[in-house]
Write a structure and sequence with these properties.
The chain has 346 residues and is mainly α. The protein has helices at residues 3-7, 19-56, 60-85, 87-97, 102-127, 129-135, 140-153, 156-171, 177-200, 205-229, 248-276, 282-324, 327-345.
């Protein structure tokens, strides 16, 4: 065995002495992903916050009802759907790292199908939100207001599901700037849409819920046009495919545990708002705690963006390498190198 070959590092892409110099470069790469991600999360979260803020000027009852409905919607719907879409981080990251680009589009379509099916029980829960809230001891007036808001929030599911899948699809390719830009345009537009429906159209809290659905649809339209027209997605989006209907059960097996991880964390915040509704003076308690939770959620977006940036940049590729590498064969090669090295030195 040639000595020069033996001297080459095994399974290490760069010399060890170059590792410290690579740390600043890696930090810059992560920040280029993390900053747009954090901004997009904050802007997307601002849509519901703006709706609650506009309703807050209508009265204490309306604010309490919308706050309670928003928490119930997060617990029973948005958190579960966002968690299920997290399976795309694994699948799309793995496919992108393996350069199987066409699979990203198939996984996105498959996710939209599974998440759409999950919307059926969510729709039923929101349709009877007032009855559910009464069963857990909420104030009757607040529950009635929350139920009306939740019913008008149902159309938002039609846009939220594909929007979430498009976002994860683009994140897996490190295309985070378009996501941030679309979220910014949506947040700005939402202010005017919400104002027009809540005050000008006189719809009150119902207008706030409907404006959320419209804003999600605007965000989805922007991202869908980008995916369709941008050259950056030509390899990953090749059109609708019948392959998306295969493997739905396998996707669900990965999506449900992913959803539970998100839900258990998310619910710990939202349950506080629901519990505040059974305290004395529920209108005041629910409103105040909802404002606190929304503020805390904005701060939570920073570590969330950092975590996802690491996930989409490194873990997908590492997972593919781990799964595709024949480690038994690599161990034999390593053993041969060690034996060859010892023979050469003798």
């Amino acid at each position: 065995m040639d000595e020069a070959t033996i001297e080459q590092p095994f399974l290490v892409p760069h010399p060890v002495q170059d590792a410290p110099a690579g740390v600043p470069a890696e930090v810059k790469k992560l920040l280029r992903l993390a900053v747009p991600l954090v901004a997009s999360f904050i802007l997307r979260n601002a849509v519901q916050m703006v709706s609650v803020m506009f309703v807050g000027h209508l009265g204490e009852l309306q604010l309490a009802g919308v706050s309670l409905a928003a928490s119930l919607a997060n617990v029973t719907g948005f958190s579960f759907l966002a968690g299920m879409a997290g399976a795309l981080d694994t699948l799309c990251g793995q496919a992108f790292g393996a350069r199987q680009f066409h699979l990203l589009g198939i996984y996105k379509q498959r996710a939209m199908l599974v998440l759409t099916l999950a919307c059926i029980p969510i729709t039923l829960a929101w349709a009877f939100a007032d009855q559910i809230l009464l069963l857990i001891g909420q104030d009757r007036d607040v529950a009635a207001e929350a139920g009306e808001y939740a019913r008008w929030l149902i159309p938002s599911l039609a846009a939220f599901v594909p929007l979430t899948c498009h976002t994860r699809f683009l994140q897996a390719q490190s295309l985070v700037v378009p996501v941030m830009a679309s979220s910014g345009v949506t947040a700005l537009t939402h202010v005017f849409v919400c104002y027009a429906l809540v005050y000008k159209a006189g719809m009150g809290s119902k207008g706030a819920a409907l404006s959320t659905a419209i804003s999600y649809a605007i965000n989805l339209t922007i991202l869908a046009l980008y995916v369709r027209l941008s050259s950056a997605c030509k390899r990953t989006w090749t059109g609708f495919s019948a392959e998306a209907f295969a493997g739905l059960r396998d996707f669900a097996k990965l999506a449900v545990p992913s959803a539970m991880m998100v839900c258990l964390e998310w619910w710990s915040f939202e349950l506080l708002v629901l519990l505040s509704g059974v305290l004395p003076n529920p209108k005041l308690e629910t409103s105040v705690l909802s404002i606190c939770i929304n503020t805390a959620t904005l701060l939570y977006m920073v570590p969330l963006g950092l975590g996802i940036s690491i996930s989409i940049s490194k873990l997908g590729l590492l997972l593919w390498i781990t799964l595709r590498t024949n480690w038994e064969s690599e161990a034999i090669k390593a053993q041969e190198r060690v034996i060859g090295s010892s023979v050469t030195t003798k």
